[in-house]
Specification:
The complex is a heterodimer.
Chain A lengths: L8 H9 L4 H13 L1 H20 L9 H10 L21 H7 L9 E2 L4 E6 L7 E7 L8 E3 L3 E7 L2 E2 L4 E2 L4 E4 L8 E2 L5 E7 L3 E3 L2 H10 L2
Antiparallel strand pairs in A: 1-2, 2-3, 3-10, 4-11, 5-8, 5-10, 6-7, 6-9
Helix pairs in contact in A: 1-3, 2-3
Chain B lengths: L13 H11 L2 H21 L4 H18 L10 H18 L27 H13 L3 H11 L5 H8 L3 H19 L4
Helix pairs in contact in B: 1-2, 2-3, 3-4, 5-8, 6-8, 7-8
The chains are: A alpha+beta, B mainly alpha.
Chain lengths: 218, 190
């Protein structure tokens, strides 16, 4: 399936640079599983990193450093070449970068109820900048209309959702900023599972979600 | 493609050394690679805020990882400098930022396969390096600065915005514009 919606290139660049916080990086890595075009962009940005590293003015290594490292590699086995062999069985729904946090695939997620039509799972990271969560929205049901205090990335992993901007299918990422107000609705026929990353609390327009916010940490 | 040919002599490149390490466990080639790249990784780690001792350790650890993973280096995908940069970057996230590095798994069953690569991906490493260098040099200075701060000092968008005292949205657009230009000038060598 071709991916139609991509993260902003500022995020791809920072991911390649290693300067993107962990929560955003989960979403970028998961998108890369679906998107050869963004993988090429990452390779391009890494080539920039290689050149910039080469331009850094060198610092002297400690005396004896080379001997120490030669000694160390004498005891170090070289790894085997990477061979891409997909494990047998059906392909998982969650990309590896997300499975690592869940400890399993989508059926292993310890969902927490979020209102009538949705579930969430907060992903624990060590960055203090953003929050990542998995969301499961019941087929055909809406997420309450909300705005954003900051940026929000939403990557579809299964099913689809639709808002005022477009339709988003597996691999598609919606990248919206503080100015956007939208009301996503899950597609009919299949629950929509997505990964959402935000750097500020959502701003719900309606009263009920607003009072529940501190409890649900959204 | 004609290889760069300075004064009729072509010095072995980091790529050549790395290939020899991978193919023959060549310790002499490894030592050359160490001399060429370890001092730069140490400097890079110090720019990222590491003490000279920690920077030294990470530089050494990077080179040991290069030895360990050398057969995984794919010269059709990247140059030695690029590949070693990614190893240093990942170690730095692990050691200095103490965060996980969510990464693509090459064995990912979900992975949508790459399309065919352009034959231009085979062009000489020195040519690629020259062209990437030129493309960075062609960026407007404010975009170059944002790119450098991202890569070399490891600053997030918010940190760059604070450092330069420029709104966050401006930093994002500088990074986006820089990336669009890099894509335009380097799209054929990906």
């Amino acid at each position: 399936m071709t991916v139609h919606h991509h993260p902003g290139s500022d995020l791809l660049l920072s991911y390649a640079a290693g300067s993107l916080a962990e929560s955003w990086s989960i979403a970028i890595a998961a998108h890369l599983s679906h998107c050869p075009a963004c993988r090429q962009d990452i390779e391009l940005a890494e080539a920039v990193g290689g050149v910039l590293l080469h331009d850094v003015a060198a610092e002297h290594m400690a005396p004896g450093a080379l001997d120490d490292v030669l000694e160390a590699i004498g005891h170090t086995m070289q790894e085997a070449p990477l061979v891409a062999i997909p494990p047998p069985g059906p392909a998982p729904i969650l990309p590896k970068s997300v499975r690592d946090y869940v400890g399993g695939d989508v059926d292993d997620v310890p969902w927490q109820r979020l209102g009538k039509d949705a579930f969430q799972f907060l992903i624990e990271t060590r960055d203090g900048e953003a929050k990542a969560r998995l969301l499961r929205i019941k087929a055909g049901r809406p997420v309450p209309s909300h705005g954003h205090g900051g940026r929000e990335l939403t990557l579809v992993l299964a099913g689809r959702f639709e808002d005022e901007i477009s339709v988003f299918r597996p691999g598609d990422m919606e990248d919206v900023d503080a100015e956007t107000v939208h009301k996503p609705v899950a597609g009919v026929g299949e629950d929509c599972i997505c990964l959402a990353v935000t750097d500020a609390p959502l701003r719900f327009k309606e009263f009920l979600p607003r009072i529940l916010q501190p409890i649900l940490k959204i | 493609m004609i290889p760069d040919n300075y004064n009729g002599q072509v010095a072995p490149s980091d790529n050549d050394f790395l290939m020899r390490v991978a193919a023959q466990q060549d310790r002499e080639a490894f030592a050359q690679l160490f001399k060429s790249i370890a001092p730069r990784i140490k400097a890079y780690m110090m720019k990222l805020g590491a003490s000279p001792e920690t920077a030294e350790e990470i530089a050494q650890e990077t080179l040991i990882t290069v030895w360990r993973k050398s057969v995984q280096f794919d010269r059709h995908k990247s140059s030695a400098a690029t590949w070693i940069f990614t190893i240093a970057r990942n170690l730095r996230i692990d050691r200095l930022r103490k965060e996980n590095r969510p990464a693509l798994d090459p064995n990912e069953p979900l992975l949508v396969p790459d399309g065919p690569r352009s034959p231009l991906a085979e062009i000489e490493e020195s040519t690629v390096v020259d062209r990437v260098t030129a493309a960075i040099g062609d960026l407007p200075l404010d975009q170059q600065e944002a790119v450098r701060l991202s890569f070399i000092e490891g600053l997030s968008h918010g940190e760059i915005s604070e450092r330069l005292n420029v709104p966050l949205g401006t930093i994002k657009s500088r990074l986006r514009l820089s990336f669009e230009k890099l894509r335009l000038s380097l799209g054929d060598i990906r």
